[in-house]
Design goal:
single chain, two-stranded antiparallel ribbon, 73% helix, 1% strand
Length: 619
């Protein structure tokens, strides 16, 4: 069975293994995260004492550390891990459905539908969604263990279930509703709500409360950003949306922005509110007629409940996120499975049973083929940041965040005029300080310093807590050769945000230009403390250490840079100088030769070559 699930998953998602990281959280969570780039006592401690910044996900951070230890910052290692977890999740879903429905081939078919359903693709394709596939793995591991514990009356399996639940909570607190799900399972399997059953849920409830409280601390902004009525209306809209996309998973987007007022007078909310009430009424009506169908509906709602706090982000409002339906859609699969099973069991003779099985099997195969094709389309959308944001704008052309994010991609790739146009469009939709700062950065790249400075200073007056303004002014002064002024702005940046990595790096570079080697060393060591694999800071620190006479440590940092980028001519030529000065002539010559092969005009390399000729080492 494992081979079957692997084959189906890799057929649908195989091309995603060559996808890149995307700037939507992947940089903050993975590529620029000092917690991830090393695995030691300090980083593991940081993983368990930090938010992401909203979620408490220590085990997810540790899993990133393992991925980094295996593959560095190659996206392949992260995407492969996520795909393997997703495949394991699909098998666990099939196992769970088999224990519920007691129909093996139907459970496998539904598990395969889970593995290939486009609505779950975001959780698989987005490296930052590792927390979703990881927590889901432990969520269903806990459920399956619990089911066997009740069947075999095994305390060992029971505590194994509790252990898996804790691991799930450490991955992402969204699985906090597991105690409710277990009560629903007890009910659907006829064990009822006895005192014994309630008491045995105490460990689950205890951990759910603890992690729930921890999780709320990271969501305080979302909790106060809207009224209770608005949260209820948004919850109803997203619930109906997920059912719709489960049944017809097209036009998916990484974000679903909502720009209009949230009011019950709008049909956008009034209709979903009525539909959710009808959905709840149907679940109650079916409880005594088809408990399994009622269970599927309640499972869907219960596991979706924690997501109803996540509508506001960065000043914008979003009514849904595909990954939030990753676990809940299993409830809809239960509903489909129990309906199919009821239809099969209602057959009056073997011939009818056989024909109906063929119909159900054909329907599953058609769904697999259709969903597989749609999921492959999703893998192309997640190819890189640009394709991702362009897809958002294809469906939501008035998405301020998508225009801003696309502008950042265009700026990175050198399309400065296109970036300016994207930032201006974003500001037309909603004026915010961060987009203004991005627009100013584009003007800096265009060397329109006057326009950039005007924007930065205006942002500093309106939003002084945004460190990017001071950083941008520092860049402008540095580019114009006003180094003392640049130092002042970079230090102000660091005062505003002590974790501003690029400010440390640039400030260290300015100190090098000022021949202030001691201050350069102090600042650049802080940059490397924030990001141990920051190549530019490592090289600059090596230069400062060389000028301070600390040649051995300088050499260590140069070799560290070369280990990351073997074709860095500056590092190679500087290393060759150090080797020559400590009389390692042969290695110095080989290193110098390589530096000159990469860059024949490198000044440090040419100066060393001249010295070696003067000393009679080379001719």
């Amino acid at each position: 069975m494992a081979l079957l699930f692997l084959s189906v998953s890799f057929t649908a998602y195989g091309s995603s293994l060559s996808n890149q990281f995307v700037t939507l959280d992947d940089n903050g969570l993975i590529t620029d995260n000092p917690i991830v780039v090393a695995m030691n006592a300090d980083t593991i401690k940081a993983a368990f004492t930090s938010y992401d910044p909203e979620l408490y996900i220590p085990l997810t951070f540790v899993s990133y550390q393992i991925s980094h230890a295996i593959g560095g910052l190659n996206p392949f290692a992260y995407h492969l891990t996520d795909l393997l977890f997703h495949t394991a999740n699909a098998m666990l879903v099939a196992w769970f459905l088999f224990l519920l429905l007691e129909n093996g081939w139907l459970a496998i078919g539904l598990g395969l539908l889970f593995s290939i359903h486009p609505l779950g693709s975001e959780a698989v394709l987005w490296a930052s969604a590792r927390k979703d596939v990881l927590s889901t793995f432990f969520f269903f591991s806990s459920i399956v263990s619990y089911l066997y514990a009740t069947m075999k009356e095994s305390r060992k399996l029971f505590w194994m279930s509790v252990f898996f639940f804790v691991l799930g909570l450490l991955s992402k607190v969204m699985v906090v509703t597991l105690p409710v799900v277990l009560l629903l399972i007890d009910d659907v399997q006829g064990r009822g709500m006895s005192k014994k059953r309630l008491l045995e849920k105490i460990p689950y409830v205890l951990f759910a409360v603890i992690f729930g409280i921890i999780g709320i601390f990271g969501k305080t902004e979302n909790l106060v950003s809207s009224t209770l009525l608005q949260k209820i209306l948004m919850a109803c809209k997203s619930t109906v949306f997920y059912v719709q996309k489960f049944l017809w998973p097209t036009d998916l987007s990484v974000t679903y922005p909502y720009m209009d007022p949230i009011t019950i007078l709008s049909s956008d909310f009034a209709i979903p509110l009525v539909l959710v009430i009808l959905f709840l009424g149907a679940a109650y009506y079916l409880r005594n007629r088809n408990r399994m169908a009622s269970f599927g509906m309640l499972f869907f709602l219960a596991t979706l409940l924690p997501t109803f706090l996540n509508f506001a982000k960065g000043g914008d409002v979003y009514f849904a996120s595909d990954r939030y339906a990753y676990i809940p859609m299993v409830g809809l699969l239960v509903l489909i499975g129990t309906s199919a099973d009821f239809w099969l069991r209602s057959a009056t003779n073997m011939r009818s049973v056989s024909s109906r099985r063929m119909v159900v099997a054909a329907a599953i195969i058609c769904a697999l083929l259709t969903f597989g094709a749609l999921t492959q389309q999703q893998t192309a959308i997640w190819q890189n940041s640009t394709t991702l944001y362009e897809n958002v704008l294809a469906h939501y052309p008035n998405s301020r965040a998508a225009h801003n994010n696309l502008g950042m991609e265009q700026l990175t790739s050198g399309e400065i005029d296109a970036a300016i146009a994207s930032f201006r469009r974003a500001l037309e939709l909603h004026s915010d300080a961060k987009t203004k700062v991005n627009l100013a950065a584009a003007f800096v790249r265009k060397k329109n310093f006057a326009e950039a400075e005007t924007i930065y200073r205006a942002v500093m007056l309106s939003d002084p807590e945004i460190a990017d303004s001071a950083y941008g002014l520092g860049q402008i002064e540095q580019k114009q050769g006003k180094l003392v002024e640049a130092v002042s702005w970079y230090r102000k940046t660091i005062e505003t945000n002590p974790q501003y990595l690029n400010a440390y790096n640039n400030l260290g570079g300015v100190y090098l230009q000022l021949n202030d080697w001691s201050n350069a060393e102090v600042i650049l060591r802080k940059a490397i403390e924030l990001k141990p694999d920051f190549v530019e800071s490592s090289y600059n620190l090596a230069l400062a250490l060389k000028m301070l006479g600390q040649n051995d440590e300088s050499e260590l940092f140069l070799r560290k840079v070369i280990a990351v980028n073997a074709n860095d001519a500056d590092s190679l030529s500087t290393l060759a100088v150090l080797l020559y000065e400590r009389k390692a002539i042969d290695e110095a010559a080989q290193t110098l030769k390589k530096a000159l092969q990469i860059d024949q005009s490198n000044p440090t390399a040419l100066e060393l070559l001249y010295r070696m000729k003067e000393d009679g080492i080379v001719r």
